[in-house]
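Encode chain A's predicted structure.
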Amino acid sequence: MRAILDKKLLLLFLFWGEIIFANNVSITNARVIASDTTNLQTTVEFDISWENSWRTSAAPGNHDAAWVFIKYRESGGSWKHAWLNNTGHTAPSGSTIDIGLVDPGTAFNSTTNPGVGAFIYRNADGAGTFSLTDVQLKWNYGANGLTNLSIADVQIYAIEMVYVPQGSFYVGSGGTESGSFTDGSWRGTNGTTPSIPYQITSENALTIDSVAGNLWGTSTSGDNSIGGVGTLPASFPKGYKAFYCMKHGISQQGYVNFLNTLNRTQQASRVATVLKDTTTWLQRCYVMRNSSQVIFRQGIRCDTSFAPYVPITFYCDYSAGGTWKYVPPPINANVWRGNGIGGEADDGLGTVCNWISWLDIAAYLDWAGLRPITEMEYEKACRGDQAPVPNEYVWGVTDLPTKPVSMNNPGQITEVASNAAANQSFGGAGGGVGTTAGPARVGAFATATSTRAEAGAGYYGVLDMGGTLWHHVISVGFAGGRAFTGDHGDGMVDATGNNNVASWPGTGGFLTNTGAGVRGGTYWRPESYMKTSLRALANWTQNNANLNTRWDSTGGRGGRTAP
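Encoded structure for chain A:
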């Protein structure tokens, strides 16, 4: 769609793409409707809708939201992040708009602390599909360096989020989640001795020490270590303060959207296949695994031939109806490959994105104006403010979960387990999608009427926190994690395609600045890994020498400190 404001002033070609994730969040009818040429601002208007939305004043007293942000490029140049004003937005009847600044703790500044996105959500109790027309966001195009004579392409993106309210909560369940590990809990002794839950009552600094009353775990080294004696600073997000968490993990289409706004050099850092500027042909077109075919349901690919130097266009091509195809040397084998047409109904757009590393996730979150969540925030999102249940799963009970036998409508946004009782993907090939192991669609186990346990959901409605894929989180176990201050992404990655936030582990691709780990289990691990307080691999990247290593069982999601 092309919107011409004034041929003598600002011309904007507005490209809107229907951004589809698990619950069909979509943006349509995007347009530019007005321009303040004196203050170099313009109004971007659009309609938005998503399914299974809610707001409730009763427990758990929260809501979901859409995080909306805008990208632009001048005359076919590089994509950049649009900086929003702090006022002048229009929330349609029934909704609220909160602007997310780069630093929510300091005053708005159009160039040094702009709005990088907007939370849009219900302003009253309700549930079901939430549809809004004529949402308006005010863009400070002058602060981005554009003039009244600039010509730009504009793209709008949306990510579903869940609001986690401020309040006290517990880490550790009082159970024996650690099993054979030295101490997978927060406080207590190892092995079969129950952990002692630790209550987080503020964002104040915490002492990590073996003295009673402090945050502690007996182990000082290893994947599940609480770390050595020290301090967890007040600036480290502990989960007490309100925050937003992505409702689902990063989807494959979400990661494609990210890749397609990068230049060739940046793209090369964010995929496994080697993409030199001069490359014009490759057989390993499934780029997240450097493979010639779909492996463990990773369907992100590009064409096998393309122009040199310019950015490559990526797309999802899982194609449950794909075919075996002979690929000549150096592959010299029959491979399972999609049909080369991206974005079809069964191409896995909503499948959770696997084969992404910590650095991939950090770059994506920076690009989206979000941030990583900490392992304390992970437990808050799972357990809420409820009393701990020893050995509980992320959905709050100890009853054994049910894994899917297979998936109906594979690769589609309607993909669901063939056995209705399934509530998470775990435990091997059968825990993925039957004969084709791998992660399921984001939110595949939740419906409009499912209970928390039936959906495998956390207390506040965050989905898929256990099973499916490991979640990368900031760990308290090592100095790199404890130094995390909760800084948000500014919407831009650096020239090499890495995140540029100084306090994040691995900033700029520095592979030894560790402090991240994984929580929550995966589609091929047993059900015990889906327990809320299991810290078996909480420091996993600390002991993994390369933070850019990609695995079939790792994914990611992020969050944001509430405005």
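Residues 358-368 form the longest helix (11 residues).
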